[in-house]
Amino acid sequence: MNRRENRITSVVIPVQTEARFRRLVEEWQRATEHTSSIMKAIMHPAYLQIIGMGEQAVPLLLRELHDNSGHWFIALHSIKPDDDPTEPGDNFDVAASKWLPGEELTTT
Q1: Domain ranges within the chain, ordered by starting residue
Q2: Which of 43, 55, 59, 96 is the residue whose CA sits 20 to 30 A from 82?
């Protein structure tokens, strides 16, 4: 079957979903790497498409945040506003530690 386990959230993610996510992340990173405005970056069509993937993107966003850092808090909040553990004023490290409690997050 075209599925692979993601141990970050113990869910099975279809390979096609992960491939689409990876393609969008790479497109977004290429297009915004020299952008100093976070507002311009998060309004890029690839970022908005990642948000549009909904709940299926959450484990992939958490893995991306864990492995590569990045500006994924707005996407996570947009998809799961009721589950957002961050508070206004949290800096990047605090927000990351709240979305990614503990360092047991590994993928295979």
Answers
A1: 3-99
A2: 43
